[in-house]
Write a structure and sequence with these properties.
Helix content: 25-40%
Bound molecules: adenosine-5'-triphosphate, magnesium ion
CATH superfamily: P-loop containing nucleotide triphosphate hydrolases
Distance between the termini: 19 Å
Protein name: Macrolide ABC transporter ATP-binding protein
Keywords: ATP-binding, Nucleotide-binding, Translocase, Transport
Organism: Niastella yeongjuensis
Pfam families: ABC_tran
CATH class: Alpha Beta
CATH architecture: 3-Layer(aba) Sandwich
Family: Belongs to the ABC transporter superfamily. Macrolide exporter (TC 3.A.1.122) family.
Length: 235
């Protein structure tokens, strides 16, 4: 099995004046194609910091990150942005939609940057909007949509470039239980269709949708467990 994510000794520090805050202290992790991984851990343990590195939104202070066979750990920002646009779909807790654009326009936006023609953009965006069940709401703006619908738009936007990796940082953090389950069903479908999914959550119920649970504590991996059967976890 080939690794889509290979992390070796990943470190990340922030400097507050002269004081160094070590947030990630040496993360080794391999994630294979089509895996479905939940990343858990206490607040401040470094989950979002790690997700931002995985998503090429930030660079590590040390260590190696090989994404789909490409060493991205020392890449310059421009190249990193290219890799991000091609390889990664990111879903955030706060949806991060542009308020003046319709659902369809929000979903099509990554294709504008990719230089796809208007006609093709609309067709491709409509296709993923259908996948998340929002056909009827495609011409509405975010403030005319529910939280769950906004998150569907954000998921469709993450999928529109056909990325090899879907990352989601607490995608159900702003949603009620029923809506969270619907959103998790969509992630399940994405994974079943062959994609690789990594998501952060605080909730065990949400994490149980994944096939593998990685727990962080104080910037290190505390445990990494693959599910072998329903409700059954082993190292
Ligand atoms: N840009 C930054 N500058 C300085 N410190 C930061 C920065 N970003 C994060 N940190 C610190 O790094 C640590 C880890 O933060 P991170 O956001 O990765 O945690 P988390 O596990 O995602 O927490 P939560 O569950 O609350 O979202 C925290 O102590 C945080 O204050
Ligand atoms: Mg976080």
């Amino acid at each position: 099995m080939s690794s889509i994510i290979h992390l070796e000794g990943i470190r990340k520090s922030y400097f507050m004046g002269k004081q160094e805050l070590q947030v990630l202290k040496g993360i080794d992790l391999d994630i294979h194609k089509n895996e479905y991984v939940a990343l858990m851990g206490p607040s401040g343990s470094g989950k979002s910091t790690l997700m931002n590195i995985l998503g090429c939104l930030d660079s590590p202070s040390g260590g190696q990150y090989v994404l789909n066979g490409q060493d991205v750990s020392k890449m310059a920002d421009d190249n990193l942005a290219d890799v991000r646009n091609k390889e990664i779909g990111f879903v955030f807790q706060q949806f991060n939609l542009l308020p003046r654009l319709t659902a369809l326009e929000n979903v099509a936006l990554p294709l504008v940057y990719a230089g796809v023609s208007r006609k093709e953009r609309t067709e491709m965006a409509m296709e993923v909007i259908k996948k998340v069940g929002l056909e009827e709401r495609s011409h509405h703006k975010p403030n005319e949509l529910s939280g769950g619908q906004c998150q569907r738009v954000a998921i469709a936007r993450a999928l529109v470039n056909n990325p090899s990796l879907i990352l989601a940082d607490e995608p159900t953090g702003n949603l009620d239980t029923k809506t969270s389950i619907e959103i998790m069903q969509i992630f399940g479908e994405i994974q079943a269709a062959g994609n690789t999914v990594v998501l952060v959550t605080h909730e065990e119920d949400i994490a149980n949708h994944a096939h593998r649970i990685v727990r962080l504590r104080d910037g290190l991996i505390e445990s990494d467990k693959v599910k072998v059967g329903i409700g059954e976890l082993t190292s």
